[in-house]
Structure formats: structure tokens, C-alpha cells
Design goal:
51% of the residues lie in helices and 12% in strands. Strand 7 and strand 8 form a beta hairpin. The strands form 3 sheets. Strands 2-1-3-4-6-5 form a 6-stranded mixed β-sheet. The chain has a two-stranded antiparallel sheet with strand order 7-8. Strands 9-10 form a two-stranded parallel ribbon. It folds into 3 domains: 142 residues, no CATH class; 108 residues, NAD(P)-binding Rossmann-like Domain (Rossmann fold), CATH 3.40.50; 195 residues, no CATH class. It is of the alpha/beta class.
Length: 465
């Protein structure tokens, strides 16, 4: 894991552990409260109700994960043994016990039930160890499936890149895999741009201490134009590139140049809202799915769903789903319609497209054909709001590298272009300008605003053809 992503993952782990400890506390209290005979007591109410244990909950639930972190419990999950985890857990619980004992002695707070606390150790500890085992299993599956490593490109001098890669290995940054190493002393910046297009990486790591300043500047500018993060291992570089900040990777201070939203809790929230929102919309629109399926079956032979490779985040291809609105020979006829293309740039768009059958035109005008893209949102390939994904052949034809920055965010079902009357915009440059405006000003509230404006745009059929 890297920098802020690592911090977010740690916080998610701690929140989950706090929830598990709270659940264990409730279970232990319920076991003691409703089954006193198991512990040699009589009477259901021989210990206080759960609400009287609030002060204990206020100490144990939030502070246990923090103390676990201090003992290295969340580090090197794959390398740890179960016995090491148990030792770390025991040491953390001893610290919590000392804090509780101090509160009892100095503040005269009563420990209402020692049995509940005694039960909490094996139950809560078992929950935490079980969750860690599931996390370890999940990570190992991703490693086996080769989806755990983050692919990056190293840029700089040969010696500096080798030393930096070795330092990352020694620091335990095994989740990094270099897919290319660009020696700026021997290779042009154009090779870096080609590598970005080929590998669809999210970040480039610079180890360029002895490379000419202007060459490094050119390479970082290329990353900025592409919307790819540039991580520079140096403290002497001055730049006017927007939003430079510092981060830590492998125990080394790095200067990061971001021209797209970075890892943050807001982005985590966006991802969660995307998936939950997509599932809710799918359930609410099920009748429309059935209607579209039946109509396509009756009006055009062939599959109901149209599948096409589109350019996802950083240009990585994915299969996008739509309800099919064209005949099966649509791709073959596309070449003959190129002269009627109404969009400038690499995008293809024709009014009254003859390839669209009648019921398909009805689906398009009401944007019903877009509904299957909600499946892409659930799969994490798209967002509810983001730049619209282009077919991979159109992505490859984007000539200006600055326009590829629209690929730096996950593509979406709707965007500013969508609510601005998309068919009134025939310039690809203007379309990209709207996408970059969205990226540069992104916030959860902007997403909510676009979603609210999308509904009337769809109902009033503004720009849908």
C-alpha cells in the first residue's frame, strides 16, 4: 500500500475492529445477563443493564484499535504468524486493562461485572483474529490472482532507480511492481508517454537526482497532462504545477504532483455511494429492464445487451454494458457513416443514426439503454458521476496528451456534459473542457448536484438522441 491509501486502509481496519469489539461486548453482556445460572448466579437482573456499561465501552471500543496499532498489529499482515498476532493482542489488552484499573481506583468508577470483562477477552480477541485471518486470505487470493501489486513506472537514472527499488523492498513495499523503467539519460520523454498508454498506471515514481532539470520537468509535465500522479524522490525540485504536496513511500519523503483528486475519505465515500446507489436504482428500475428486454427481443434478433470495450480509469479497458439499440451489423456500417460524423476529434456521433432500430431509438431518447451500466458501477468499473467512457479505439486516437487527463477519474454514467444538453455540443475540445472542469472542482456535493440535475434532463429528454 502507498501513502494515503495505506492510511485509509488502516483507518478502515480500525473502524471494523471497533465495531467487532462493540459487538463482542454486547454478546458477552447478553450472555451474562440472560444466563446467570451458567456463572453460578441467580436472577436475570443481577448485573446492571447494558447502558450502565457505557464508560467501559467508551474506553475499550475506540482505544483498543489505537493501542493495537502502537504494537504493530496492523503491519505486515502476510508475514505475521498467528502466535505473533496473539502476543500483540495480549499486550494491547494488558494496556487496556491497566487503563480500566486506573479509572476504577482513581475515579471510583465501578466495574459492574468482572465476568463480562473476562468473557470479552476470548470473544473479542477471537473476533479480531478471525477478521485478520479473513483479511490475510483475501490479500493472498489477490496476490495469486496478480491483482494485489500496484503497477508503477520508474523514471530517472539507472543507478537511482535500482537503489530506490531496493529501498522499497527493504521497507516492505512489496505491493509495488515496476512494469517499466525509463532511463531519461538515454530514452526520450515520448517513451514515458507510450508506456503510460500501454500500462495504464496511476503513478510514476521519479528517481532522478542526476538527470538534467529540464528533462525531469518535461517528464513530470507529461504526467500532469495525462492525469497520472508523479512521485518525485527529491527535496530540491521547485515547480508551478498545481497541487504539489508531500507524502511518504518506503520511509522516504516524496514530493507528489497531482492533477486529479487523490486518495481521500471523500473518494472512499464516493465509491461506497456509487455501489449502494447503483443497487438501489437497479431495484427501482427493474420494470424498465424487463420492458427493454422484451422490446428488444420482439423488435430485433440477437442479444439484448450490447457489450463494448471502453477506456476506464487511466485508459485501462473494461467491458461496458448497454441495452442494444442497433442492428447486429452496426460496427460494419460505421465506416460508411464517417463522413456524416458531427463531432470533432476522435469521437463518432451521428444524428438519426440509420443503424438504430425503431424500439432502440425509443430506448435512447429516454436513456433507458444506459441502465445496464449500473452493473459496471456495482463492479467498480464506473461511477454514477464521472467523464463518459469512450470506446478504446477513440481513446487511442486522442492526439493531445492534455485531453487524456479526463481518464484520470473513473468514468461515469452522467457528467456535466450530460446535463448541459450533450447533443448541442459538437466539439470534442469543449466536451473535454467540461470533463476537466469536473475533475478540477470535484467534491461529493458536486456529484450530488449533477445527479439531481440528471433526473430532469432524462425526464425532459434534453439532448438524448
Amino acid at each position: 500500500m502507498l501513502g494515503r491509501k495505506q492510511e485509509i486502509n488502516l483507518q478502515i481496519n480500525q473502524i471494523l475492529d471497533s465495531c467487532l469489539i462493540a459487538l463482542a461486548f454486547w454478546l458477552c453482556h447478553s450472555l451474562r445477563f440472560y444466563n446467570p445460572e451458567l456463572f453460578g448466579a441467580t436472577g436475570e437482573g443481577n448485573i446492571p443493564p447494558f447502558g450502565d456499561f457505557f464508560w467501559l465501552m467508551a474506553i475499550i471500543v475506540p482505544f483498543t484499535p489505537v493501542i493495537l496499532e502502537m504494537h504493530g498489529y496492523y503491519s505486515h499482515v502476510l508475514q505475521k504468524t498467528v502466535w505473533r498476532s496473539i502476543r500483540q493482542l495480549v499486550r494491547a489488552l494488558l494496556v487496556v486493562a491497566v487503563v480500566i484499573g486506573g479509572c476504577v481506583v482513581f475515579f471510583k468508577w465501578g466495574a459492574q461485572s468482572r465476568v463480562v470483562l473476562a468473557l470479552l477477552v476470548p470473544v473479542g480477541g477471537g473476533f479480531l483474529l478471525a477478521k485478520e485471518a479473513l483479511v490475510r486470505r483475501y490479500i493472498r487470493r489477490k496476490v495469486v490472482a496478480e491483482r494485489w501489486h500496484e503497477e508503477v513506472i520508474f523514471v530517472g537514472g539507472v543507478g537511482e532507480m535500482a537503489r530506490l527499488a531496493d529501498q522499497f523492498d527493504r521497507a516492505g513495499e512489496s505491493s509495488i511492481r515496476a512494469v517499466d523503467m525509463i532511463d531519461l539519460a538515454k530514452r526520450p520523454v515520448g517513451d514515458l508517454i507510450a508506456a503510460l498508454h500501454q500500462h495504464s498506471v496511476e503513478r510514476v515514481i521519479f528517481a532522478a537526482g542526476h538527470i538534467h532539470f529540464e528533462k525531469v520537468q518535461e517528464a513530470i509535465s507529461a504526467c500532469e497532462a495525462e492525469g497520472v500522479e508523479a512521485w518525485l524522490s527529491t527535496d530540491f525540485f521547485e515547480t508551478s504545477i498545481a497541487r504539489p504536496n508531500m507524502d511518504v513511500l518506503g520511509g522516504r519523503i516524496m514530493m507528489v504532483f497531482r492533477s486529479a483528486p487523490d486518495a481521500s475519505w471523500a473518494m472512499v465515500l464516493k465509491s461506497m455511494l456509487d455501489r449502494v446507489g447503483a443497487l438501489v436504482i437497479i431495484l427501482l428500475t427493474l420494470p424498465l429492464w424487463i420492458f427493454a428486454w422484451a422490446g428488444i427481443r420482439l423488435n430485433s434478433p440477437g442479444p439484448v445487451l450490447f457489450k463494448q470495450k471502453r477506456g476506464g480509469k487511466n485508459g485501462a479497458p473494461f467491458v461496458m454494458y448497454k441495452f442494444r439499440t442497433m442492428g447486429l451489423d452496426a460496427e460494419e456500417l460505421k465506416g460508411a457513416l464517417q463522413a456524416e460524423n458531427q463531432m470533432s476529434g476522435p469521437v463518432f456521433k451521428v444524428d438519426n443514426d440509420p443503424r438504430v432500430f425503431k424500439f432502440g431509438d425509443f430506448l435512447r431518447r429516454r436513456s433507458i439503454d444506459e441502465l445496464p451500466q449500473l452493473l459496471n458501477v456495482v463492479l467498480g468499473q464506473m461511477s454514477l458521476v464521472g467523464p463518459r467512457p469512450l470506446p478504446t479505439d477513440e481513446v487511442a486516437r486522442i492526439e493531445r496528451t492534455s485531453q487524456r487527463r479526463r481518464l484520470s477519474m473513473r468514468p461515469g454514467l452522467t457528467c456535466i456534459w450530460q446535463i448541459s444538453g450533450r447533443n448541442s455540443i459538437t466539439s470534442f475540445d469543449e466536451w473535454v473542457e467540461l470533463d476537466l472542469k469536473y475533475i478540477d472542482n470535484w467534491s461529493i456535493w458536486l456529484d450530488i448536484k449533477i445527479l439531481l440535475l440528471t433526473l430532469p434532463a432524462v425526464l425532459l429528454r434534453r439532448g438524448a438522441k
